[in-house]
Request: fold
Amino acid sequence: MKIECLFSKISKAVNQVERGVGKNLTLPILNSILIITSGKVVKLRSTNLSLGVEIEVPAKIETEGVVAVPGNILTNTLNSFRGEDKVFLELVGQNLLVRTKNNEILIKSFPHDDFPTIPIVSGKSWEIPSEKFIDGLRSVFYSGAISDIKPEISSVYIYPSDDRIIFVATDSFRLAEKKIIIKKSIDLPSIIIPLKNITEIIKLLSDNKEILKITSSKNQISFSSPGFYLTSRIIDGVFPDYTQIIPKEFKTEAIVLKQDLLDALKLANVFSDKFNQIKLNLKPKEKVFEISSQNNDIGENKTKITTTTTGEDITLNFNQKYLIDCFQSIPEDSIILRFNEANKPVIISGGGNNSFLYLIMPMNR
Reply:
């Protein structure tokens, strides 16, 4: 192998591909990035067996070749270079020589024959702008369960509904749902993607401005665009029928400015207890929307917010973190909160926009 690449392109690609590198002591080959020459491009691959990525970089190829080198070593090497325009990669024996006008680095390689194949997913395909798909994932993923005890909820659930793609995540204490409008209805099976892969998928697709081709089979899903290919394992399970727990009627409704509520919640958190517990007290007839918190070791706090409130009086306790998490998914300036009895879930959405819904269960007092 003997190739020449633009530093900016190879460095960016290596940093992206390194996200798919496994941290595996029993299978050291998973810690590597595979470099393959192909035509007028060099392909960079990584996998941890659950997630796999391949990115193509234009290159001037003098001699073909294949090599697998430690992902962290290659990434840290390129990130240490400054002011470079071109990078030359060359196989010297079985090792990789990385050369620039100012540097010459020799990196020891792994046996590349041991590198696992990245699955080529075949099945039903559909297309969506990358920005829309990322918006769907970002809007809900934080609500997924951290524990793997129930894999079907330690995930993001994706399914079609008419001209929309629905993204859902829940940890059984709160639930986030985002509806993304697409141009036409599609025939797509529902998909459950593991939460631990979602954060990497978001990062890997965040700079992608292309139309994504998404293909799914029973066990795998792939995302592809020119010069980019990403695969993830999908969960073979059944996501809970969450629509049954979404209330259809409400006894109290409040409309508040998002920034006012955010400021009040941040202040309440300073005085919250070890469970991040805060109290919401609504008295529509008195036009009162009050947030309070108390910590026996620190003190207590009460903040009143200007609001438009209708319905019955209600007092509920919530986990402050769970409440504040949904703000990242609401771009609108105002927020609507809808309440029922003390043991019923609260629904939060953006003012004038029904594409995002957030459900949160009150805490026991």
Summary: Residues 258-270 form the longest helix (13 residues). The mean pLDDT is 94. The chain has three domains: 2-114, 124-167+179-239, 246-360.
